[in-house]
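Appendix B. Raw example, untouched.
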Amino acid sequence: MKHRRHYVKNKVRRLKNKKSFLKRSVFWIVILSVIIILSFFHFFIFFSKFQVNSVIVSGNNSVQGEALQSIAWNNVNKKIIVLGNWNIISKSIFLTGPKIISKDILNKFPQIENVKVFKKFPKTIILQIKERTPFAVFCQTNDKKCFYIDENGIIFKILERIPENISIVRQIIENKEVFAGEKVVEKNIIDIISKIKINLKDNFQIDVKSAMISNPFRLDIETSENWQIYFNLDSETDLQIAKMNLLLKDEIPDSVRKTLQYIDLRFKARAYYK
């Protein structure tokens, strides 16, 4: 019996030692794992080789590069630890968010159509800017508030005065104030106006002075010769332009255009002029 008890005690002792060893092993594995994770964290977040030190801007014209860089730096500077007035900040390129920078720039500057943000490792951020190009000047009917408008129908810069040698697009917008960055004219209507402008200029050396969108179905064009053309936006534009071209070539020569008041193309099978 004594031998039996001694054997059992030895076995229990060995099991305890084995468990103790396993506990110590797990402990050190956890410690080692934490050290490795913290090392990687420090390497990617705080290692000087990956701290952004340059923001390069290209493609901007009307928007100051310093203003764009400032938005980028606001995103680059990350507060990792905040303890009262004590902050630990990282400028790691791995924490920089290109999508956030792009969104912030577009929200701040409506005159920018697109921005691409690239990370150039190890420590440079590149901003490629595409600004909107004025297609015309957009004014509400009273002309009290005018903006540049781009080819997508988006207004992007308020104007103190209307520049010369650029078409004016007017639209009746009742009881509504418009703001830069807002889409005020549908792109298909902008495309129609553009097509009319190109056709008149290329074929007859006539410029479009203004375009008035009276309602969703009517477009009135005022030419540089001070006569007007009435279009139906609910009908095929190419057919109306073709009728206009025939009239101007065959029935309304240059001499007659001096006294011309309007050409009305709104009716499918017919065209009128006075």
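End of appendix B.
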